[in-house]
């Protein structure tokens, strides 16, 4: 195959890939949410994130030692911002906490008991943000 024919065959798919948006190919830079149930009984959960972005929520039920990941739950903005997480377990509001969105770390909500959750990390640090 000569060079001209090779370039004509390769250039169309490459151009389509570039014009379709690299984020779909490379994946998103937003923060994922991991919900883990470390309790010995099943729990229903609901997590609502709010801040300088459109409110997002997720809900479900987890058996003991089960987890669920919600991709791109909290957006990364072009500045450091806080996301407030409101967490309900088995229909009861258990905790509300702000996390600073500043890196590629995921946010983990760990259900310890029907009235206790842990949120990690407290601070999530951004690739463009300044260190503390």
Summarize this structure as a short list of keywords or feature phrases.
2 helices; disordered C terminus; Immunoglobulin-like; alpha+beta; elongated; 132 residues; four-stranded mixed beta sheet
Summarize the structure.
The protein is α+β, with helices and mostly antiparallel strands and 132 residues long. It has two helices and nine strands; from the N terminus they run ααβββββββββ.
Task: Give the SSE map.
Blueprint: H1 3-20, H2 22-26, E1 31-37, E2 43-51, E3 53-62, E4 67-74, E5 81-89, E6 92-101, E7 107-113, E8 116-120, E9 123-124
What does this structure look like?
The strands form two sheets. The protein has a five-stranded mixed β-sheet, with no helix packed on it. It has a four-stranded mixed β-sheet with strand order 4-1-7-8, with no helix packed on it. The radius of gyration is 20 Å and the shape is elongated. The longest helix is centred in the N-terminal third of the chain and has 18 residues, at 3-20. It has helices at 3-20, 22-26, and strands at residues 31-37, 43-51, 53-62, 67-74, 81-89, 92-101, 107-113, 116-120, 123-124. It is an alpha+beta fold. It has one domain: Immunoglobulin-like, CATH 2.60.40. β7 (107-113) and β8 (116-120) form a beta hairpin.
């Amino acid at each position: 195959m000569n060079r001209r024919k090779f370039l004509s065959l390769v250039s169309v798919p490459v151009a389509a890939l570039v014009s379709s948006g690299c984020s779909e190919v490379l994946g998103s830079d937003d923060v994922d949410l991991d919900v883990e149930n470390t309790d010995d009984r099943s729990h229903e959960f609901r997590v609502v994130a709010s801040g300088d972005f459109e409110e997002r929520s997720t809900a479900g039920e987890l058996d003991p030692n089960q987890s669920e990941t919600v991709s791109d739950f909290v957006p990364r903005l072009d500045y450091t911002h806080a996301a407030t997480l409101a967490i309900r377990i088995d229909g009861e509001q258990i905790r509300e906490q702000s996390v600073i969105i500043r890196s590629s770390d995921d946010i983990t909500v760990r259900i310890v008991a029907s009235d206790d959750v842990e949120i990690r990390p407290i601070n999530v640090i951004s690739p463009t943000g300044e260190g503390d």
